[in-house]
Amino acid sequence: MRYLILNIVLFLVFLLSPNHTFTQEFSDSTWAVHYFKVFREYEYSDSSKARIYADSSIFYAYASGINDLKGRAHQFRGWYYQDRSRFKDANKEFYASLTFLKACGNEQGVADAYGNLGNSYLDMEEYHKSLDYQVLSLEANKTILATNPTGETKTWAEEGNTIALHNIAAIYQKIELYDEALKYELESMEFELQSGNEFGVAISYNTIGQIYKSKQFTDSAVFYFEKALEIYSRIDYPYGLAASLQMYATLEGTDLTQEKKKEMLEEAIALRRAMGDAYGETAALLEIGNSQFDLLSNDSLSALVESIYFLIEDNELESLNEKYFRLYSRYNSRIGEYASAYFALENFLELKAISDEKKLTRDLIARDITHQLELEQEIERMEASERLSKVQNVVYLSIAGFIVLIVLLIFIINANRRRRRMNDVLVDTNKTIQEQKTQVEEKSKAISDSINYAKRLQTAILPTAGQVNEHLPDSFLFFKPKDVVSGDFHWFESKGDLIFIAAADCTGHGIPGAMVSVVCSNALNRAVNMFGLTEPARILDKAREYVIETFAKSGGDVSDGMDISLCAIQGNTLTFSGANNPLWVVRKNKFIADDAEKIERGDEVSLIEIKGDKQPVGHYSGVEPFTQHELELQTSDMVYLFTDGYADQFGGPKGKKFKYAPFKRALISMNGLEMSEQGDYLDKVFDAWKGDLEQVDDVCVIGFKCG
């Protein structure tokens, strides 16, 4: 728990430890306790100092060799990460804290660690785990209280019990079981009022206000928010004050004016910023943007949107992107930037679909927990009923043994019948569950079979490595779909001594992208084989006609298509045309003029970029004929075609995109490798950059030499 009197306890731990020299352990343990104290002083007011003090407490706790100090030090650093919304890091620290506190037999510390872990899992939206750990914390505190402790031990266990009740209420609130949440929070508030803990009372008031806000009981919500604000202002707790201001200002149906709401949100933002709470600051800015949208000028909105963008980008607050793109779309629509508005709307709808899936998951979890609660209540009711019946039986036996015997026999018969009925219900329920499980497994297998069949179909339209190597023996193909099937594809065709090769990226990935790739691949085949076209630009023009015509048959406004780099090679002459994608050529420096443009220079070789047209092969406003470029290849020239999946992959130490400049340098750096080795090299670079992160898009890179 955060409010223990740590100095006294930890100093006593030091004095009672027989296995360390007095001088060194006193020094290290005293410094650890000191940094615990100053961390608490700066936890919310100065995040930089708080981090330094948390790390310092870790150092001195380990230097002391005392497991209790180590456990508490990890707890403090976990709180630091939790305050900064770095929930996974906080979770790791709380696990370390639990390990050390168990090792030293600190029962209260273990109860606190369970609660901290429950909070971290709630932050990460893992509600079952969160509820399990909070119940463990509640039971651990009750176990301590059952021993009839006195003094501080009793105080800490009572406070831990109260906090566990509050945390359980928070879980039920998160999964929208508001009646259960209110029950636990009112019980928690009762303990806080009895102990005179104003800080805990304020937290309960704010939580109850949030619950009533969710239940749309406006008057009750206003009552509790105002009581929470009064206490937070008096005890100077900025974190709670900011939360209550923000929740109250966004409550619908109050008497607050728009100007007052804006003033409250701006105060909340200032408090969040002072604490270094980037997540809370960004959430409050989004609330201002959406609630005050019609009242803000274009310049004010522009500055607001820009501030939100940099906060999300700098602090990796991806969870707020849905609200940001909604506001960004509305802003661009208002100022007439409809292309940007449409782009933002697409991102908003995609993220909203993901959040809707998470909402569905929470609903399923809530339904499961509700079922468990109802089952537990039914069991308790049956057990209470059975206990009452037994008491009645004893009374009857004392009055008339024979009559009581008859009653007892009747009771036993009825109880057996109830058990049989319950068993029948359980058998029926298990049967239903098994049938539903079978249906889900059958549907899952059918979907899996369909996807694998789609993969075989897509594989059938892609050229094999043998076909490509027959005409371009010095080449490689690095093809790495995100899913089983891919929206990227490579295309190859030959007509006499004329060779065509392309790398294409269709709209979407997975099954939708694969379906579009079939249409686009067929369009290229028709342009070459049916219409006899040999110039890349004209091939793309004809392919665009076919793609638009094909999707127009759906009767809707379909804008699917592809970005592509297409080459035609005849001898040492390469002809290129591209849709949004470029062509890169790595050439020895001696063949390149000193004043050449669009060059990425290396020590021995440099990379030449030939850009494609800024339009896709598909429906597009302002369509123009594709541009064709001709290039005479030099000895040892290496040509590369690719889609955007490689450069757009997130990874590295900061989880950022790989981007095109490092991609160029990677190609230049592997100049000395054979073409057959370059594909493996790119694969290793890609995997090393991606690390444990998920692949974000399909990847296709083609490289070859001519002559």
Structural summary, described in words:
- This protein has 707 residues and is an alpha+beta fold.
- It has 23 helices and 14 strands.
- Helix 10 runs parallel beside helix 12, helix 13 (258-275) packs antiparallel against helix 14 and helix 14 (278-291) runs antiparallel to helix 15.
- The relative contact order is 0.04.
In brief, what are we looking at here?
This protein has 707 residues and is an alpha+beta fold. It has helices at 6-16, 22-42, 47-64, 67-83, 87-103, 107-123, 127-145, 151-174, 178-195, 198-214, 218-235, 238-249, 258-275, 278-291, 298-315, 321-334, 338-399, 401-461, 465-471, 510-530, 536-552, 660-669, 675-690, and strands spanning 475-480, 488-495, 498-506, 561-570, 573-579, 583-588, 599-601, 605-610, 617-618, 629-632, 638-642, 650-651, 656-657, 699-705.
Count of helical segments? 23
Mean pLDDT figure: 84
Strand content: 5-15%
Rounded Rg: 34 Å
Helices, strands, pairings?
Layout: H1 6-16, H2 22-42, H3 47-64, H4 67-83, H5 87-103, H6 107-123, H7 127-145, H8 151-174, H9 178-195, H10 198-214, H11 218-235, H12 238-249, H13 258-275, H14 278-291, H15 298-315, H16 321-334, H17 338-399, H18 401-461, H19 465-471, E1 475-480, E2 488-495, E3 498-506, H20 510-530, H21 536-552, E4 561-570, E5 573-579, E6 583-588, E7 599-601, E8 605-610, E9 617-618, E10 629-632, E11 638-642, E12 650-651, E13 656-657, H22 660-669, H23 675-690, E14 699-705
Antiparallel strand pairs: 1-14, 2-3, 3-4, 4-5, 4-9, 5-10, 6-8, 6-11, 7-8, 11-14, 12-13
